[in-house]
């Protein structure tokens, strides 16, 4: 004969499980989408001023450079490679800190930086987004970007720890392309981040 005191507990547990299951499923789907499709980040420093401000909330397209298996770095479908002018999210090759910078050169490009100005493939690049008010930061001697690598720099050239200091970033480790700012210090806003 079943114990009458245990039956209500079991039925309550079943009811809780039935009610929680859809919420848990929705949470897993949301986290998987954030891991593989799109995500948001908060800009941590002034290295990308005036394009991005400290504290800006940015929307990142994680499908831009290939589809990854949720919660992993395993690429399921190959995508485009980062292109010069795109603003991207990646982990620092030095300490793994999540960074946001602009791609200034890709594999095969010959580049140099003088006074914060970028020279690429035989010509000075017009960079209306580059901020040189506090100087241009360190120069970079002429070099060719190796296969599979990209060179990144902050738009605020004199206030950016970037590829001039830490070197190249493997193109296949870039998480995604910044699409725009959706929240600034003064509230909701949409400011698209345009490539060069």
Q: What percent of the residues sit in helical stretches (DSSP H or I)?
A: 10-25%
- Overall pLDDT level: 85
Report the β-strand fraction as a percent range. Answer: 35-45%
Q: Superfamily at the CATH H level of the largest domain?
A: Umud Fragment, subunit A
- Rg result: 22 Å
Low-confidence stretches: 28-37
- CATH architecture descriptor name of the largest domain: Ribbon
SSE string, helix = H, strand = E? HEEEEEEEEEEEHEEE
Biggest sheet layout: 8 strands, antiparallel
Count of helical stretches: 2
Whole-Å distance between the termini?
A: 77 Å
Structural class: alpha+beta
* Annotated CATH topology of the largest domain: Umud Fragment, subunit A
Shape: elongated
Topology:
Layout lengths: L6 H30 L1 E5 L14 E5 L4 E3 L6 E4 L8 E5 L6 E9 L3 E5 L2 E4 L2 E2 L15 E5 L4 E5 L9 H4 L2 E2 L5 E9 L2 E6 L4
Antiparallel strand pairs: 1-2, 2-13, 3-4, 5-6, 5-13, 6-11, 7-8, 7-10, 8-9, 11-12, 13-14
Structure notes:
The chain is an alpha+beta fold. It has two domains: 1-36; 37-192, Umud Fragment, subunit A (Ribbon). Helix content is 17%, strand content 35%. It is built from two helices and 14 strands, in the order H-E-E-E-E-E-E-E-E-E-E-E-H-E-E-E. Strands 1, 2, 5, 6, 11, 12, 13 and 14 form an eight-stranded antiparallel β-sheet that branches. A four-stranded antiparallel β-sheet has the order 9-8-7-10, with no helix packed on it. Strand 7 (110-114) and strand 8 (117-120) form a beta hairpin. The radius of gyration is 22 Å and the shape is elongated. The N and C termini lie far apart (77 Å).
